[in-house]
Each structure stands twice: as C-alpha cells, then as structure tokens.
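Subject: sequence -> structure tokens, single chain

Hey, anyone have a minute? Need the predicted structure for the following. Not urgent.
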Amino acid sequence: MTFSFKKFLKTTIPLLIGIALIYYQFSSFSKTELEQIKNYFKNANYFYVFLSIFISLFGYWSRAYRWKYSLNHLGYQPKFYNSFFAVSISYLLNLTIPRSGEISRAVILKKYEGVPFDKGFGTIVAERVVDLLIFLLFVLTAFIIQFETINAFIFSHISPQKIALLTGFLILGMLVFFFLWRWAKWPLILKMKSKFKGLAEGMTSILKMKTKWKYLGHSLFIWFSYLMMFYVCVFSIPETASISFEIVIMGFIFGTVAVGFTNGGIGAFPISISKVLLLYGIAEEAGTALGWIIWTSQTILTIVLGLLSYLFLHLFNKN
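Reply:
Had a minute. Here:
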C-alpha cells in the first residue's frame, strides 16, 4: 500500500462515514419533522451564533499565544502572526485529513521562523497531551455531576450480567496489555513505546518551563472558550435555551469526541448532540437543528479563517 493510497483512505473513509451518518439521521425523520428542523434554522436567534463565533476567535488567539511559551523555552522567538496563521491553517487542514494540521503547523514554523521541524512538532505533541488531560477532566466532572442519569441510562439498556462480563473483559484486556507492554518485542509495541516516550518528554519540557503556569492558564482558557462557544449557541433555539449547564457539559463532551470521529465532525457532531439532548427530554428535531447550527457556524469560521491565514501568511512574509 503506497503512502498516497493511505492518505486517500484517511481522507475518504471518515468522510464516507460522515455522509452515511447524515443520511441515517435525516432519513429517520418524516417530512413534517424535516420541515420543523428547517423552521428551527429559519427562526434561530443568530445573535448567539455570531457571539459563539466571536468567542471561538479567542480560542484561536489563545492557542497561538500559548505556543510561544514552549517555543521560547526552546530558544525560539516566532512572530505571533505566523503562529496564529499556522494554527488557523492547521484547523482547516484537519477538515480534510485528520491530524494533518499538526504537521502543517510545524512545517509553516520551519519555513517562516526557522524552527526545526522535530522541535516544533514536539511542542505540538506536548500541547495535545495537555489538551487530552483537560478534556479528561471535563469527562470526570460530567460523570460526577450526572452520575445518577448515566447510571440509570446504563442499567436501563444493559443488564447487570452484561456489565459484569464487560468489566471482566476490561480487566483481562488491561492485564494482557500490561504484559505485552512490559515484555513483548513486537514492532508495533516498540513503536508505541517510542511514541509514548516522546509524549513523556514533551510533558517534561512543559514542567521545566519558567512560564508553565501561564502555559497552563492559556490551556484552561482555550477549553473554557470551547465550552462557552458551545454554551451560547444553546440560546439560539427556544427549546434548548432552558437546559441546565450540566447538560451543556454532556453535549460538549460527546460533541468533542464526535469531531475526531469524522472529518471535522461532519455528520457525527450533529447526531451526537441530538442523541445526548434526547436523553434529557429535548426533542430530537431541536437537538438536530442545534447540532447543525453549531457545526455549520464553526466549520464556516474554520474555512474562512484558514483561507485568509494562508493568504496573509504569504503577504506578511514577503520579505
């Protein structure tokens, strides 16, 4: 299998899954329900949608600004606008080939700021580790807050016997993984160990920064802006405007996971939002409309900002 064919599969398979999810979601609605979803779009309060987009810009800014702390730690002083353009372009490319944006960020910084690719990419990997830990903190918080609802949902859909069986398989799988990780010399395991070592080194470099608290502060602010971007959109539709903040957090978590499931979350994001809100008594039509409003507005922002950044990157670095 050639590299180009691998890239083709990485692009098309998630996209096809997204298209299939869109077909599945809308084919399950009647004509009346589809008309109702259309009316939600027509009558939505787009003030909150534009406010959501405005908040998202702070997330872009903070991510670009956070990057300078890890690069400064390595002895590099990149221009802020190049960092911002690189981040914006990376979001755009992630809509095509998942995770290709991270590579593009390092490539752009090497070309316009002279930062070696491996060092630039290492700082990006460290960012991903920090982002993952913060996201897991969201998941833990949501699980604690919504324990009763989650517990009731699980036991209403899965019998205690199946839960015990799944728990047993999980423990067995963890034991097998531990022994393979500790003693196996398979190429795949060795490759995973190498990547894990790189992640550990990236985290260690963050802990050694003089500005680590500022770095952490921006990391928390980035995720806060993501959450607020999601939250304010809730008020664009009357049926979802009254949901509690705890429910918003649940929707945000499942939506975040869905974004990584297909290209930019196409198909997966809206359907995940509708299913989560349905669990809390919100009509599926309203949840579907909200999911598509959030996804569409953020995707348009990503495309516009990415294309403008690509143009400005060349204009700002003519000399």
